[in-house]
Amino acid sequence: MRASGRGPSGRRPSRGRLAALGLALALLTGACGGSATGTGAASDASPASASARAAAAQKQLAKNTVVPLEGKPPTPKLPVTVDSSDGRKVTVKDASRILPLNGGVAEIVFTLGLGDRVVGRDITATFEEAEKLPQVTKAHDVSAESVLSLRPTVVLADTDTGPKEAVQQIRDAGIPVVVLDPATKLSDVTTRTTRVAEALGVPEAGKALNQRMSDELAAARAGVPKGSKPKVAFLYMRGSAAVYLIGGRGSGADSLLEAAGAVDAGTAAGLDKPFTPITTEALAQAQPDVILMMTKGLESVGGLDGLLQIPGIAQTPAGLDRRVVDMEDGVLLGFGPRTPLVIDILVDRIHQAS
User: PROSITE patterns annotated for this entry (predicted)?
Assistant: First the structure.
C-alpha cells in the first residue's frame, strides 16, 4: 500500500459487484490483538495519531494474517436452522469440517476462532492461514467434485458462488449449504459476521467480533481532520484486458470513502452504476483530488507514470498533484474483519495535504 504525492514517484470484483479497504499505535495494536475493547481510541483524533494508526494498520496487513478473537476458541452449539439467501431454511448439525466458498467469509470464520475446522478454500482466500488449504475453485467457479472430496459438514457460499449446478450437486450429496448475500458496503460486514456466526452455532463470538470491529472503526474515523472532505475517484483497471472503469454508486469503494471522511467523486458526478467506462468527460466531471486503486490494477497500467498517460487523468487535480493511493486487491474490497485497517489507512492517506 502506498500513496504517491507530488514529484516522481486479484481479486476482480465479484460478478454481483461488477454488475452492480505512541498512544494511537498502542490502541490499534490492542484492538488488533483480538479484544472487544477499543473505546477511548476515538478520543484521539490528531493527525499524528492517524498516521500512527495507518502505519500500524499497514504493518498488520503486510503480515497477511487474521487476528482471532482473544480467549479460548468458541464451541459451536448445534443444531441450528438458519435462513439461506436463496430462500431456503438450512439446518446445520455439525461444524467440525467447514468449507467457506468466499475469501471474506473464510476470513470471518478464522477470526471467530474456528480456523482449525476449515478444510478447504476458495481462490479468493489468500491470507496466510488459508494458503495451504486445498483449493476447490478454478477461475472463481466451484468444483463440486473437489468440495465433496473434502467431506465438509457445512458449506458457506454467497449468491455469487457458481455454477449453480455445482452448488446443487453439493446439496444433493446431503451437505448443508448456507448462502449469504455478498458484502458490497461497510454495513454488510457486521450483517455477514452475524449470519456466519449463527450458522456455525457461535452467535456470541459473532457479537464480540462485531463489537471489536465497531470500536476499531470508531477509532479510525476519529482521525479524519475537521473540515477535510477530499473527492476521491475509485478506478478499477486491468490494463492487459483493456478494462478501465470508474466507480460510482454501489461500487463498494463509495461506502469505504464515506467512512473515511471523503466524497466518492464518481457518485458526486452522478454515476449511478457501480462501474462506468472511463472517459475524459467523466473524469472532467468527477474532478477527483485523489485517485484510489487496487495495487494490481495500478501495476497493470504501468504504475503512476502509466496511469497518467490515460486520457483525462493527468488533467484532474489528482493527476496534476500525482495523488494516487493503492491498496492490495484482496483487502480493499474484502469487507471482512480487516476492513477497519483499510479505513485507518484511507483516513491517513486521502487527507494528506488536502
Answer: FE_B12_PBP, PROKAR_LIPOPROTEIN
